[in-house]
């Protein structure tokens, strides 16, 4: 059984594209993350990437860097992220992907991290700076703990690399829509269609497309090609702007609803 | 032992490798492939040698510091004068090499990070020489303490971008340079300035600096008729140290001594001595010793010397340390400052604060080791540090 695979199968049978939301665990504070995840789920989000805060997030743009700083001010470390996952699980079975830079996982002990994450209700893991070349032992550890693995594919990836990414990814493949760091963009990269088609030639695993997608019309365009759309910075921006507001959860839920709307029956 | 070489994926033993977002893997493979081709290309080697000799000023002298040695009354201290190179530090060796590579790859935009500003100045210089667009990332704390180098870079036509994230030092400048590279990868070469980061940088940067040790080895054999007892170099990322160490690796009796920044003391956050306070981990593309807290967050570091103020260390140094082929020690801010002043007043050489750490270690050991011969890498000159010397020697700044 796998919540991630089951979710993709269920959506496929309904002709829907998945909406995946990224949140930094502990942003704006550790006691709010589970509530925000529940709000996202009410708004129609199908899967969550739960970000582990890291001091030096070199793949992230300013928006998510600041989110990590806010979480780190609350001393949110890996055990605390797993506490948050357990809290989410008290009311939800939404698939959770742990989204982390490698170092906090290594410091905790990679195998110990994998088994404790699985026990806390995490379903999969994506380590931003874990390349397929370095993945072998770590993928084994994640799989033997019962976790799915997700790797990044990029516009610069060669065919050989796309094949390796596909081989090591079990939950889904995360296709980075453009060269660059995370963050909202005015226009969607022109190369997404080409990359999706190149990947579909080498894999039958679900494809999620992310980086730079923040608006319903962008989600709709990507949703026609991919199995899932990932939105991160747009949610993080709402958290940043309305951290203290009483209607933060309602705003998050509303953004999720607007992004999910064009993804229903989109395929 | 035979000199260490990385495996095909860039591992030095357990260290090194490639830990980057997938977008950077293809460009790293391109840099590696181009470098491997260039190494075998006599045209490339001849052009690089021509630039090193006629533009940068190689070979640099190996100078016997006679007064200093006599005053200390022990070991004979030789100084490898990388400070005499064009731009004032060893950094130009690597910059000229990588600029030629960037041209081969058709990349006309160069980005770099800099801590002390020496790598930034060398990069800006090489870009000016070839008419390439140059952007240098520098933490604003480093811009403050190395203001002269900021101006030099701008005078050379480079754009200097201040980095306000984190500790506002070298680590944050590297992250910002990587973010730029990942965004502009089609047009841009990242001219990384130390033996750090993802493969192939640690081995490639080492090879561009290997001339330091090759010259020093030949020079000491000519002068003393024998190998030195110790080779001493400061270690930030570790490029000047690996450059001078590597040609001596097979010479078992030669002790290789790396000197890290001891800063203000042994507490986490007060120094940059990775080998005494660090734990292996991944930062900025490589697996090596790393100053970090129990949660795997990268620790803040401190050194009076911006070029040594970094939380990680080149992966080959980590391996050499595990193998006990090289030994690593540290030197405090105060000892480095005192050593710089003493070298200035005994030999008329004002070293960079980075290099002063190596000089301090030589001064500490020399009195108890008469008859021994040391080679100390004076990796850069101290003009850029004048502001810090003024702050620390106020008695010299009276009207």
Task: Please give a structural write-up.
The complex is a heterodimer of chains A (267) and B (399). The mean pLDDT of chain A is 95. In chain A, α2 (33-42) packs parallel to α12 (248-260). Chain A has an eight-stranded parallel beta barrel, surrounded by ten helices. Chain A is globular. Chain A is of the alpha/beta class and 267 residues long. Chain A has one domain (3-263): Aldolase class I (TIM Barrel, Alpha-Beta Barrel), CATH 3.20.20. The longest helix of chain A has 13 residues, at 248-260. Chain A has helices at residues 3-14, 33-42, 62-73, 78-89, 102-108, 110-119, 136-144, 159-168, 192-202, 216-223, 233-241, 248-260; strands spanning 18-24, 47-51, 96-100, 124-127, 148-153, 172-176, 207-210, 228-231. In chain B, β11 and β12 (285-290) form a beta hairpin. Chain B is globular, with a radius of gyration of 19 Å. Chain B is α/β, with parallel strands linked by helices. Helix content of chain B is 43%, strand content 19%. In chain B, α2 packs across α4 (91-104), α4 (91-104) packs parallel to α5 and α5 (118-130) packs parallel to α7 (147-155). In chain B, 63% of the residues are buried. Chain B is built from 15 helices and 14 strands. In chain B, the strands form three sheets. A six-stranded mixed beta sheet of chain B has the order 3-4-14-9-10-13, sandwiched between helices. A four-stranded antiparallel beta sheet of chain B has the order 1-2-12-11.
């Amino acid at each position: 059984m796998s919540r991630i695979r089951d979710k993709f199968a269920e959506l496929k049978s309904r002709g829907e594209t998945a909406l995946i939301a990224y949140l930094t665990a502990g942003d704006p504070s550790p006691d709010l993350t589970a509530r925000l995840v529940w709000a996202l789920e009410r708004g129609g989000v199908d899967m969550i990437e739960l970000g582990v805060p890291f001091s030096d997030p070199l793949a992230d743009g300013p928006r998510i860097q600041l989110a990590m700083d806010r979480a780190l001010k609350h001393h949110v470390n890996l055990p605390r992220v797993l506490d948050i996952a357990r809290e989410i699980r008290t009311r939800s079975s939404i698939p959770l992907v742990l989204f982390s830079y490698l170092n906090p996982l290594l410091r905790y002990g990679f195998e110990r991290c994998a088994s404790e994450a699985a026990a806390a209700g995490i379903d999969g893991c994506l380590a931003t700076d874990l390349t397929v070349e370095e993945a072998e032992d770590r993928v084994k550890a994640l799989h033997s703990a019962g976790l799915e693995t997700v790797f990044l594919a990029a516009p610069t990836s060669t065919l050989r690399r796309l094949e390796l990414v596909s081989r090591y990814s079990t939950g889904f493949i995360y296709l980075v829509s453009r060269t660059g760091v995370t963050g909202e963009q005015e226009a969607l990269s022109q190369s997404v269609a080409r990359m999706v088609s190149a990947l579909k030639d080498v894999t039958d695993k679900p494809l999620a497309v992310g980086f730079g997608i923040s608006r319903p019309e962008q989600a709709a365009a990507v949703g026609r090609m991919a199995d899932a759309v990932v939105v991160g910075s747009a949610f993080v921006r709402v958290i940043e702007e309305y951290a203290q507001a009483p209607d933060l959860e309602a705003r998050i839920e509303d953004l999720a609803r607007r992004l999910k709307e064009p993804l229903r029956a989109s395929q | 032992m035979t000199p260490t070489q990385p495996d095909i994926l860039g591992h030095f033993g357990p260290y090194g490798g490639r830990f980057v977002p997938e977008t950077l893997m293809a460009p790293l493979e391109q840099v590696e492939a181009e470098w491997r081709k260039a190494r075998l290309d006599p045209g490339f080697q001849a052009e690089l040698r021509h630039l090193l000799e006629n533009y940068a000023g190689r070979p640099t002298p190996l100078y016997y510091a006679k007064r200093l040695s006599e005053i200390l009354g022990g070991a004979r201290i030789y100084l490898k004068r990388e400070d005499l190179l064009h731009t004032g530090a060893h950094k130009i060796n690597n910059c000229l090499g990588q600029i030629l590579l960037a041209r081969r790859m058709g990349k006309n935009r160069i980005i770099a990070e800099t801590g002390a500003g020496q790598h930034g100045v060398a990069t800006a210089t090489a870009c000016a020489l070839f008419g390439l667009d140059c952007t240098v990332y520098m933490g604003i704390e480093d811009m403050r303490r190395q203001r002269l180098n900021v101006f030099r870079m701008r005078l050379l036509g480079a754009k200097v971008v201040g980095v306000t994230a984190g500790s506002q030092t070298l680590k944050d400048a590297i992250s910002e340079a990587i973010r730029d590279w990942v965004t502009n990868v089609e047009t841009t070469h990242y001219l990384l300035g130390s033996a750090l980061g993802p493969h192939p940088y640690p081995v490639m940067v080492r090879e561009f600096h290997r001339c330091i040790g090759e010259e020093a080895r030949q020079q000491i054999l000519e002068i003393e008729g024998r190998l030195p007892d110790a080779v001493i170099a400061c270690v930030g990322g570790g490029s000047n140290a690996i450059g001078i160490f590597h040609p001596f690796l097979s010479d078992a009796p030669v002790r290789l001594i790396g000197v890290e920044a001891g800063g203000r003391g042994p507490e986490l956050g007060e120094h940059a001595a990775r080998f005494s306070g660090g734990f292996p981990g991944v930062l900025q593309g490589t697996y090596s010793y790393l100053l970090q807290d129990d949660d795997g967050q990268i620790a803040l570091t401190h050194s009076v010397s911006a070029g040594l103020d970094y939380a990680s260390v080149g992966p080959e140094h980590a391996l050499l340390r595990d193998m006990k082929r090289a030994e690593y020690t540290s030197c405090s801010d105060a000892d480095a400052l005192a050593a710089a002043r003493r070298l200035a007043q005994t030999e008329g050489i004002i070293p960079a604060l980075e290099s002063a750490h190596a000089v301090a270690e030589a001064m500490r050991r020399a009195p108890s080791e008469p008859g021994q011969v040391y080679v100390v890498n004076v990796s850069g000159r101290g003009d850029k540090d004048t502001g810090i010397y003024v702050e620390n020697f106020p008695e010299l700044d009276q009207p």
